[in-house]
Structure to design on (864 residues):
């Protein structure tokens, strides 16, 4: 038999019990908060058709799709046709939860309330170059409001998300909100026409990494007028720190309605008792996904370089599936959040009493079973183990395992009981 | 823009909120029972390498693997080599949770206790012909004991599984246990050599669907001796109903140790206070998977044609991954169980109060936010909705949606509050 590698396949990973317990605890907190806000959980399949995956404006992510090979006759035909990648595959693994949600809503909207507030927890897949802490399969937790064009949707999403982050023990993050249309109006004002906006915004998106001079040089290299671009950048950076930004826009005779909407969202968020977070209006929040149309937002934490949650409004996506409807969502970067919790040492784990009941299978079965049942009924964990020939080393191994769990951060309490002549007895161990 | 189908891709399905809620409730019950027995949850990736997926004795299921197409240069090379399916793919979607568990244990056993009692909840994928109630992606819930060769493993698995089934409201099922070695010893006794056993057992497996005469004819067609096969079948069917089967075996001078082990398991299960179920020793329980080596078992319910849980011992699998270790597991057919619960109308759903708070965004934001917060804090679900221009039709729509949920079996209570001059007021609705 040839040797088979037992490592997870490239870019994938195993998750061990201690970590699964922490993840489940965090997920159950997030779930309960999201539910209390009226978001309802749905499930979509992990596999979608390639036309669907390519239809939603997933941008760069569409290049990272894991494609599923055709089978049988279909494959034979494709190969004989001398065909390449797209002809060999017809379905693939989802790269986000938003494109499948669009399809789900289009397929099922007649059975759903309006607005529909959805919650999705699921793995997504991207064939990226694996790096430390970056896997090709990762969990996303999304909430979305479908069918509400008003700013209540943004408020619901941001207030539920910050509330969920608080619930799992995260503090000190900030929420930045923007409306891409403000930036578009400003760009028009400085003479940049709509077709150049995409390139303009890609360069502006770098302002959180490099200074405005570097961005200006990049814009000039890409053919933008130096004077206009310089004035635009100077207004933008001033605007970002300007307290009375509404007046600043009016002074430039740029429409103020989109900013007024943002100000209402900010006001509403400050009224929301749960999940308070610093809320900033930041015209430089752009977000990469090309399906966003207006509102965009992200939640970040000073301890973490990138954002831990992000989202926006994608009012045009559903039209592609013949069900025009406004839509808005936010996605929690669950892997990053778990990493942040671990770094801040606030990741809570369960605190359970775990008892191993050692017994003699010849005549102690009933007593051992009853003991285990009682422990389980009272909320504890009980494992039965037959008495080994060498009882001493059996106990030593149990102790060593408990100590290892402790060293991995477990807060569980470990007990060993031995069924003896007088019934079950707890023995003293070092691992409690 | 070309029209994109919004149906789930072939053999896949969407799961709507009402059903997700029921599934989550059942899963959380099963999880808590499994945890109380000391099973610890792990996660393995959905994607595994093809050599791994093909290494574990998955039998027929290996033909149903969804293969993931190679990408970029690797694909180019494969196609230029004039290569077919296996050369175009190097990874695929898991078809069960057992093969990945074997790999997981081999990769991580040095960090795990011994025995390791694992719990895995995850989707598996099989490219089968889609049928009613049979999907290409479905959820399995597995528990396994790795590193224990004794019968305590079988007792733990069966008692935890029946206990979990009780917890979610299922009653009246029966557990049938067997040891393939008993059948092998008996077959030897009647002159059938080991190489013929596989074919013999495939025919015997049909005894629950056709009568023993039909099975005899099939055996004869396949070249088995009519007289020996007839006697074998008559002993087998008698043995299945024989109360003193131990004496029956002894009388035939067939070794009794495997049966004695089964009798101990049966005795131990009857001692287990939780999850009592009728336990039968049935020499005709064989199970399809070729990786099983000795114990095999299934749990079935008279209302359902096939079994709802099945498993067995696969002591040889881990040797293939260079970590020889006894192993035993049971898998709950979660989709079948949910179907059975629905049919028996015992599927419990949550009973939550769901309130929509309607408010005027101009001056009622604070009152509405506070009202929603209070409802959420007291365990209810609150959604804010801005007052529509036509309040009457806004209320009618909310009522209609609540009535539809009721008709789908929801036990939630629906309320509508309207923020008025005197603060929030509940309005009378028909949908409570």
């Amino acid at each position: 038999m040839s040797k088979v590698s037992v490592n997870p396949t490239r870019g994938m990973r195993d998750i061990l019990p201690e970590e699964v317990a922490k993840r489940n605890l965090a997920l159950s907190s997030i779930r309960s908060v999201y539910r209390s806000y009226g978001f309802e959980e749905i499930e979509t399949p992990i596999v979608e058709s390639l036309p669907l995956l390519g239809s939603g404006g997933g941008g760069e992510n569409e290049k990272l799709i894991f494609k599923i090979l055709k089978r049988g006759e279909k494959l034979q035909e494709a190969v004989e046709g001398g065909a390449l990648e797209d002809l060999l595959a017809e379905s693939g693994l989802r790269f986000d939860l938003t494109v499948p949600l669009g399809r789900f809503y289009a397929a099922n909207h007649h059975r759903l309330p309006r607005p529909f507030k959805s919650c999705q927890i699921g793995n997504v897949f991207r064939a990226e170059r694996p790096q430390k802490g970056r896997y090709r399969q990762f969990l996303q937790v999304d909430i979305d409001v479908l069918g509400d064009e008003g700013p209540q949707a943004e408020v619901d999403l941001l207030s539920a998300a910050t509330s969920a982050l608080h619930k799992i023990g995260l503090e000190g993050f900030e929420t930045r909100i923007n409306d891409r249309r403000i930036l578009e109006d400003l760009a028009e004002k400085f003479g940049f026409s709509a077709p150049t906006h995409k390139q303009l915004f890609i360069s502006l998106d770098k302002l959180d990494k490099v200074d405005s001079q570097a961005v200006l040089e990049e814009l000039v290299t890409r053919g933008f007028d130096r004077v206009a671009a310089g004035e635009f950048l100077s207004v933008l950076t001033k605007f970002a720190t300007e307290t009375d930004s509404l007046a600043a826009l009016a002074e430039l005779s740029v429409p103020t309605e989109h900013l007024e909407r943002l100000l209402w969202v900010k006001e509403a968020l400050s009224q929301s008792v749960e999940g308070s977070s610093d809320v900033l209006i930041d015209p430089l929040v752009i977000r990469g996904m090309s399906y966003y149309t207006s509102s965009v937002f992200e939640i970040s934490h000073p301890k973490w370089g990138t954002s831990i949650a992000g989202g926006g409004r994608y009012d045009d996506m559903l039209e592609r599936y013949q069900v025009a409807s406004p839509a808005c969502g936010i996605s929690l970067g669950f892997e990053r959040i778990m990493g942040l919790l671990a770094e801040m040492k606030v990741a809570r784990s369960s605190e359970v009493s775990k008892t191993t009941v050692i017994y003699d299978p010849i005549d102690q079965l009933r007593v051992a079973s009853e003991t285990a049942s009682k422990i389980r009924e009272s909320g504890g964990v009980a494992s039965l183990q037959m008495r080994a020939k060498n009882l001493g080393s059996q106990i030593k191994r149990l102790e060593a395992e408990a100590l290892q769990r402790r060293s991995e951060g477990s807060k569980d309490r470990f007990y060993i009981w031995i069924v003896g002549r007088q019934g079950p007895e707890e023995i003293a161990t070092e691992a409690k």
The first helix of chain B runs from residue 17 to 36. Chain B has two domains: 17-343, 353-426. Chain B has a mean pLDDT of 84. Chain B touches chain A through 104 residues (CB under 8 Å).
